[in-house]
Every structure is written in structure tokens, then in C-alpha cells.
Amino acid sequence: MSISASLVKELREKTGAGMMDCKAALTETKGDIEAAIDWLRKKGLSKAAKKAGRVAAEGLIGISTAGTKGAVVEVNSETDFVARNEQFQEMVTNITSLAGSAKGDVATLLATAYPGKSHTVEEQVKELIATIGENMSVRRAAVLEVSEGVVGSYVHGQVAPGLGKIGVLVALESSGKNTAELEALARQIAMHIAATNPVALDIEGVPAEVLEREKAILADKNQGKPPQVIEKIVASGMKSYAKDNCLLDQSYIHDPSKSVSQAVKEAEGKAGGPVKLAAFVRYGLGEGIEKKEDDFAAEVAAAAGGN
Which residues contact 14 (CB under 8 A, 6 or more apart)? Predict the structure, then answer.
């Protein structure tokens, strides 16, 4: 019988087993979810299921660069203790090395053969979950590439080569032959991005809904003023927003007297050709993940029987 993708997804969420294992289980059980769960348990393929619901907001950001291409990956664990585990660090390094060939697509990355093993990345993650006893997940991945120039990087809070709490990739397009200068510039800009966390490269890259919200706030603050005055205030406010939030317009942390775009322009002489800051990616560990806040008082009360 034909097994739908939604049914496979449902079983995967319930068991934490791999996609192909879930499809095989559903095929064997003719689409019966409960029977498929039992089938996976009998095969020992849902051993990580009990841990799959736990919030994994710690872990590591992995960075890998090679000339004109770079990759960044976030692999989460439940605790920072696991992030210091050598087995976990080795796994994140290996996964990061594969992200480029997977073009930053997580599903493709999970289905990729894991180095030195006869199984996939997804199965390797499950194996380590079973070994260490914590939930883990490959949350996201991205790749930057230029036809000529460099992709540089910076890792903040580094615990091992290419592994840390914040990872940044910077793509510089350039015909300049001074690769060392370009790499140094890319790293400096990556450090700037790690510190300032810009929303976008420039104002055109800011999501439309964000800009509209900012404009609405400025207009509301100036209600009662003539329309043409409000229009000028909003336009001025957008320039201020760009200086605070858009990379090219931000004040360069290494020399606040100039903007990032000016710093890039000034580097062209040493680079030996025009330089364009084409793109960047910044991953901060656990950003956007809702962490469970433990109520310590409630825990103590529960332990004491509410007395």
C-alpha cells in the first residue's frame, strides 16, 4: 500500500526513529500507527523515543570553510555538559564537514552517509542519543559560496577548532588576488557580525513586515503632525534603523569612525581588486528555541508533599 508522507511524519514524531525506518514500519503494518510503533520497538529502532520530547537548546555551532565555500551547522543537545563531550564534538565536526555537499539542506544532510560508518547522519545522532542519554538534533544548516573571492568565518566561545556558541560566515566576492587580505577582512567582519547581530545586509534585505512595523510605530508616535512632516520623520527613522540593524550601514566595531561598507571599500587597495560583501550567516546557539523555565519553589513544594 502507499504510505503518505504525513503518516511517516506522525510516526517519526511519536518514536524519534528515522524516516526510512518509519516508512518500513508503516509498510509492514499496512499503515497502522500503533502497530508500527510496536514494530519499531521490537527492532530496537525507537530507543531514543523517550528522549525525543525533551527540549534541546544547548549544543554547538559548527563552522567549516574552504576557499570560496563555507558551511555552518547547529546541532543541539539538552545540556552544555554534553557539548563538552568529545564524542559529541567529533560528531558535530563530521556533520559540519558534510553540510556543504548537502547544500545546507537538513533533510539531505540527515540522509547523508556518516563518515566511517555504514549508516546515515540521522542514525549516528540516534546512536549517540542512546549512548549519552540526552536528546540531540541537527536543527539547521546553511552554506555560502562565491565564484571568486573568499568565504571567511568566526567562531565565538570556541571549545574546539570550528566549534562554539556563535558561528558566522561571511562571503566576499572579489577579483583581488590577495587572498590573505580578503580572509583577514572576512574574519574581521564576521567578528563584527557576531557582536552586533544585524537583521540583514542592507535595508532591502529586511523583511517587509518588520519595516512596516517600524514605520507604523514612528507614525503613531507623531500623530497629529502634518502628513508631509510624518513622512520625513519616517524616512529619517528608517535611516536610523538601517544604521542600527543593517550590516553595511552599521558603525564598524573595529573602527567606529566608518561604516562597514566604507571599511570594505577601503580594503580594496590591499586586496588588489573590487570587493563586495555579498552575504552573511550568523547562528547563535539555541536562538528561537523556547526553553523550559523550572519553577524551583514548586519543585520543592512538590517534593515536600505540598507542606
Answer: 33, 37, 49
Residue type, 128: L
**The C-alpha cell of 170 is what?**
561571511
Going along the chain from its start, the domains and CATH numbers come out as: 5-46 (1.10.8.10), 54-145 (3.30.479.20), 204-245 (1.10.286)
Long-range contacts formed by 88-95: CB under 8 A, 24+ apart? 88/59, 88/60, 88/128, 88/132, 88/136, 89/60, 89/159, 89/160, 89/163, 91/124, 91/125, 91/128, 92/59, 92/60, 92/62, 92/163, 93/62, 93/160, 93/161, 93/162, 93/163, 95/62, 95/121, 95/138
DSSP 3-state of 171: strand
pLDDT digits (tens, 9 = 90+) for 33-61: 888 887 876 666 654 544 444 555 689 99
The model's pLDDT over 138-163, given as tens digits with 9 standing for 90+, comes to 999 999 999 999 999 999 999 999 99
Residue 100's identity, in one-letter code, is: G
pTM above 0.85, yes or no: no
How far apart CA 27 and CA 265 sit, in angstroms, is: 59
3-state SS assignment for residue 244: helix
How many residues are recorded in the chain? 307
DSSP, collapsed to helix, strand or coil, labels residue 107 as: helix
- The helix or strand, by DSSP H or E, that contains position 281, with its residue range, turns out to be strand 275-284
Using CA atoms, how far residue 127 sits from 79, 110, 147, in Å, is 17, 13, 38
